[in-house]
Predict the structure.
Amino acid sequence: AQSVAQPEDQVNVAEGNPLTVKCTYSVSGNPYLFWYVQYPNRGLQFLLKYITGDNLVKGSYGFEAEFNKSQTSFHLKKPSALVSDSALYFCASPGSGNTGKLIFGQGTTLQVKP
Amino acid sequence: GAVVSQHPSRVICKSGTSVKIECRSLDFQATTMFWYRQFPKQSLMLMATSNEGSKATYEQGVEKDKFLINHASLTLSTLTVTSAHPEDSSFYICSATSGVSEAFFGQGTRLTVV
């Protein structure tokens, strides 16, 4: 079965430090991978996506993610965290094929402390 | 990015009544819309896939007579929770895609059944 996993329920970092939110995938074929962010009682905001091409993908708000095929990972990163980055982050994939029907990871709460 | 508007953002209703939630794509034609349900601090669970002009496809375990979905136009899909009960209280989120890009999410609807 195709799946997306986020192994950490919560990540805590100090403001100004680099952050990493982990994601691994198990999908057939060439994966399409997305990162979304959700603020309390809000919908999901698109951050970035990997379809093909460069393994390092740059997205909104200074976030980037690195696609690693050998490790089946797509970790979200930011060089310097802001308190306002505190939110719930989801990794997702439509599995095989480019559809909007997404398989979501469990979500990781990012807490950035001043 | 494209805009998807979901209305209402919050609704409180009495047990036994029905509630309609609207999802509109404001600046693109959404051939497919998706309805998700999210419990507190949990991931999004796909409820159904809605294609314009055809019947929705429900995920296993989702009661189609309870969660009525209509996708009458390329810019509007509605989810009606019929005879709502307290266990239907949840955060409902729609997403829409034109089929050639990533899905865009609405702001979500917090449904509370009392």
Remarks:
- The mean pLDDT of chain B is 91.
- The first strand of chain B starts at residue 4 and ends at 7.
